[in-house]
Amino acid sequence: MHLRISPVLLISTLIFVSCSDEDRTSRHLVKVGDSVLTEENLENALGDFSNQSKLREEFINDWVEKEILYKEARDNGILDSDEFNRILENSRKELAAAFVINKYLEENKYEPGSDELKAFYEKYKQDFIFTEDYFKINTAYFNNIETAVRFRKLLVESDWKKTLNSFRGGETIINEQSALLIPAHKFASVTQYKIVTNLLPNEVSIVLQEEPQKFAIVQLIEKFDKGTLPSFDMITEIVKDRFMILKNKELVRRYLNKLIDDHNIDIKRYTE
After folding, report:
1. Dihedral of alpha carbons 256, 257, 262, 266, sign
2. CA dihedral of residues 44, 111, 130, 185 (deg, nearest 10)
3. What pairs with residue 138 in β-bridges?
4. Beta bridge mates, 140
5. Between β-strands 35-38 and 208-211, what pairing exists: parallel, antiparallel or unpaired?
6. Residue among 3, 2, 5 at smallest CA distance from 87
7. pTM across the whole model
């Protein structure tokens, strides 16, 4: 009987294997056999989201499950099986190839000019039509409701920039984003989306409790209905991202063709 293992699962498992050599000064969260998940591991993986209890719990549970499955695989001799090692070798090649391509793109970064991006936008204008409602919003997150309430009160009486500047001294803002253009499905929560859809331009939301110690304030700048064609200035970063996807594909194809020529690869094409 042959056990079929997904290469994706394989790579995910390998990433989390063997944390036993971690710096002992980092607080241990959980241990499975010889492998240890530390607070430092979790913070490195989740970054700015490491304080979100739901994400922390999901990450820890996922780590424990992977470690247990890896231990079971090792104890049952799967790591020594021919199929496992064949998949592992293929995965090593795919991973190595990805590293080579990433290295090449890093060393050959292409920075498009404004005129080039505008020409790209004009050529593919229809592809940038919004396929769902979009919202331009300001958001700020706080770790206590008192600060959030004071921020909202000042924002209602003033404007976003002045309010932010007033709170950047002694007050703590966990995170803020100004003039964020966001599609309907990307809102932080369903509650936040429902609140924003009922706001008028420049109106400020009530204080929203996202987590036990996380409170949000959202200000709607403008709403754009599905089917709207945004101006180039409105979506410059989106245009650049799509342009670079195509440009990088072109760069990689040229690089691969050069490598094939350099290695004198003779590819026999099938013909009927």
Report:
1. positive
2. 0
3. 219
4. 176, 217
5. unpaired
6. 5
7. 0.66
Q: Quick one: which of 212, 208, 211 has its CA closest to 198?
A: 208
The answer to whether 173 and 141 have CB atoms below 8 angstroms apart is yes
Rg (Cα) of the chain, in Å, rounded?
Answer: 25
- Calpha distance 206→192 (Å, rounded): 10
Length of the chain: 272
The pLDDT tens digits of the residues spanning 109-165 come to 999 999 999 999 999 999 999 999 999 999 999 988 999 999 999 999 999 999 988
pLDDT band at 170 (very low <50, low <70, confident <90, very high): low
Helix (H, G, I), strand (E, B) or coil at 155: helix
Cα–Cα distance for residue pair 53/223, rounded to 1 Å = 31
Which helix (H) or strand (E) segment holds residue 56: the answer is helix 53-75
